[in-house]
Structures are given as structure tokens and as C-alpha cells.
Amino acid sequence: MKGRFNASSLPDYNSEYLHHHFSTSPSTSADKLDSRNFTLSGDSKDDYNEKNTLSRLQSLKVNFNQKKKEPFIIGVAGGSASGKTTVCSEIEQSLSNKRVCVISQDSFYRSLEEEEKVLAQNQSYDFDHPGRFYHAFDYDVFESTLRKLKEGDDVEIPVYCFKTHSRLTTTEKIAGADVIIVEGILIFFTKHIRDLMDMKIFVDTDSDVRLARRIRRDIQERGRDLDGVLTQYEKFVKNSFDDYIMPTKKYADMIIPRGGANKVAIDLLVEHIKSKLISINRNANY
Questions:
Q1: Is residue 285 part of a domain?
Q2: What is the pLDDT at residue 286?
Q3: What sequence ranges are listed for the domain Phosphoribulokinase/uridine kinase (predicted)?
């Protein structure tokens, strides 16, 4: 019969189908999903099936619109001792009324095997190499952690000891946040991780300045001596920066020359981040 509604002929609707076939504007008649959207006639059994079908569609539509908000992820890359931590700290302080967490890629260094630890003690292990078979970071754990945070879940961040070149048994719990700042030398190297970021920043600092900072840091905080720091820099750090880190600068949305010393650039960056948060309707209130 012409115009007769047969519920069994309907496809098995899901939220993905609704996303493509129903308007998201509440002002349209299609969104009301009532009987006026169909030209129907039939017996009481058809009416019953019709109501069940419409109810199911309406429920799916509501569930689809209630998708959980994703946090805003900011990536801060740059060479070793370029000032990434200072930039991250400035961003975090400027967003003090938001739930902000900072994650360092350094936390995801692999625990070295015994033979690798011997190489590290002799400054013969490359901690800056991103390769598939010879790599310093645990990219799988790093990526899965960022994906969980992107979904709003709590995560456990590894704690890495630079003196023993291994992870500790303790972890740091990070609760869901509105803004997640991720910093590290190679965070832009893989596309999967880049694609998780809403904004990418590259901190560009002179190589001499980075070397001086690295010497102070590694001697004071990581138990290294001057000869060891210089040997590591000459054998691995400089080459890795030129080959793997500097080329990722092209993926950055914003470049900050001179790192944390560039207060003007950081202030402009912070204002830009605030405007981005407002534009994506995250109820920012500054």
C-alpha cells in the first residue's frame, strides 16, 4: 500500500548514521523526530512499531549530542634546554583558573637494559634518537596516555630517574584537565601524536645558549660531569637536533625565538591561547 510504514524495513540506525543524516540544529523539524517527519498509515501494530522506532532514534540523537568535551592539548617542542619548561610554566600560570596539567616526554624514556646502561655511563647511548628499532622513548605508552587524556580519563604518568636510566615503581596520577600542555624534544616527530594536539609551539633558541643550559642542568640535576655532558652533546645531541628535532619546526603553528626569555612572544602566545579556548566554547572566564 502506498505510504504504508514498515518498521522492519528501516536500517539499523546508529550515532554515526545520525551524524550524517540529521541536522544538529534544534530549530529544524528534522531534529524533533516526531511523526510529522514521516507520511505514515497503518494498523495498531504499525503504530506501535513506529513509536518504538522513533523513540530509539530520539534516544540515539540525544546520546550523540551529549558527547564529552575534549581537553585542549598544546604541544611545546624544541631542542634540549631550549626553554620549553619555562614556556610551559608561563602558560600554566596564565591559565590558573583552568584545570591545567603539564606532561613531559622525558617521563616516557625507556628503562635501559643492563648493556645499554653501560653505554650510557660511557656517554655512548643516544637519548635523542626517535628511530623505530633504536629509540629512546616509549612511543606506544606516550601516545596511549595522550589519547586517554584527550578522552578526559585519568592516567598514570611514569617517573623516570636520569641517574639510573630507569623508571621508578611509583607513578604520578594526572586527573582529567581542561588544558593539557605536552613538552618534549620529539613530540612532533610522529603524525599520530601531532594529530592529537590542538596547538603546536616550537621554542627556537641559539645552540650555544642551549649547550650552556644543558651543562648546568645535567651537572646539577642529573649527576653528570662536564666531560660527559660535552661528549654526549658532540656525539649525539647536536646531530639529533639537526636531523630529527629541527625539521619538526615546520609543523609548529607558532615559533618562539629565544625561548622563555622572549616575554613579548609568550604574552602574545598566552592571549592567543585564551582566545582559542573562548572560540571553542569551553566557558573560559578570564
A1: no
A2: 43
A3: 73-265
> What residues contact 222, with CB distance under 8 A and at least 6 apart?
162, 163
What is the rounded distance in angstroms from the CA atom of residue 86 to the CA atom of residue 241? 20
Q: What is the pTM of this model?
A: 0.71
pLDDT of 223: 84
Residue 142 confidence (pLDDT): 94
Please tell me whether residues 26 and 148 are part of one structural domain.
no
Which phi-psi region, left, alpha or beta, contains residue 73 (left: φ > 0; alpha: ψ -120 to 50)?
beta
> Residue 256: CB partners within 8 Å, gap ≥ 6?
83, 87, 201, 202, 203, 204, 262, 265, 266, 269
Name the strands in the sheet holding 254-257, side by side, starting at the edge strand that comes first in the sequence: 100-104, 179-184, 72-78, 199-204, 254-257
Burial (CB count within 10 angstroms: exposed 0-12, middle 13-18, buried 19+), residue 170: exposed
- DSSP assignment of 223-250: ---HHHHHHHIIIIIHHHIIIIIGGGGG
- Domain count along the chain: 2
**Tell me, what amino acid is at 106?**
D
165 in the Ramachandran plot: left (φ > 0), alpha (ψ -120 to 50) or beta? left
pLDDT of residue 15: 35
Task: Return the residue matching grid coordinates 581537553.
Answer: 71
Q: Which domain holds residue 90?
A: 72-279
On whether the CB atoms of residues 260 and 266 are closer than 8 A, the answer is: yes
Question: Coil, helix or strand for 104?
Answer: strand
Chunk the chain into consecutive blocks of 10 residues (it has 286) and report each block's average pLDDT, rounded to whole numbers. 46 37 39 38 56 62 56 94 92 84 93 88 85 74 93 92 90 88 95 94 94 93 89 92 95 90 88 82 47
Write the DSSP assignment of 137-179 as a string of letters. B-HHHHHHHHHHHHTT--EEEEEEETTTTEEEEEEEEE---SE
